[in-house]
Amino acid sequence: MLSSNVIGNYKFVLFVDNYGIEPNWKIILKKLLEEQNQIYKFYDEFEDCLEKSSIIISLSELELKSTDNVYENIFRKIQELKSSDNVLQIFGWICIKNVQNKILVPFLEHMSNLIVTINDSEHMTIVSKNKSGSMKSKDFIHELSLGKTSVQESKKENIQSIVLEMNVNNLGTFKIGQKADELAAKRNLKLPFEIIDLPNKTSEGKIIYTPDSTDDFDEEDDPDNDLQF
Fold this sequence. Notes:
Elements: H1 3-6, E1 12-17, H2 25-35, E2 40-42, E3 53-58, H3 59-65, H4 70-83, E4 87-95, H5 104-111, E5 114-118, E6 123-129, E7 135-143, E8 148-153, H6 180-188, E9 193-197, E10 205-209
Parallel strand pairs: 1-4, 1-5, 2-3, 3-4
Antiparallel strand pairs: 5-6, 6-7, 7-8, 9-10
Helix pairs in contact: 4-5
């Protein structure tokens, strides 16, 4: 049930309507609160709450009614209601297509403790905020446009990385393997040096260089006399 996700735990619950079901917002919120046996009042404008109850108000409608310092008054009054012991919860509904100044939405989201975003006719996202400042987001399937308040959490598909076992000798792009004649030539190759293990050493060896007959050595007194300047 959607009501079990939004009723009781968060002081200011903000419904962000991206789909456009605001004409039914009173019916929807009334049903949610009645499912959890909550006392509530509909406010057409901000006023003091004199007895313990939850407050339900359309913030986009309030924006249209107010004139002077409308945004300052909205933010200030919400903060006062959040601090009031008589206010059990604040349920604000804002329809994006009816908002006059887009700055209103991010400010209200910042002040809220729970954000219910109605993305379209089926999908909904609920973002909850902890006192530590961390946030948790869940996606749901809803039928609010049909007057139903039951929701189902939509699990995101787990993407698993697939590890393929490959034989490097069979790769098509680079020919890494060696033919039999290439392996034989490698084994029979005689390098011009060899490593001799010393009797008392396990990790060191002595390199002995065996010169070829064609090697050209420089004289010690003038090692560069064969260079042309």
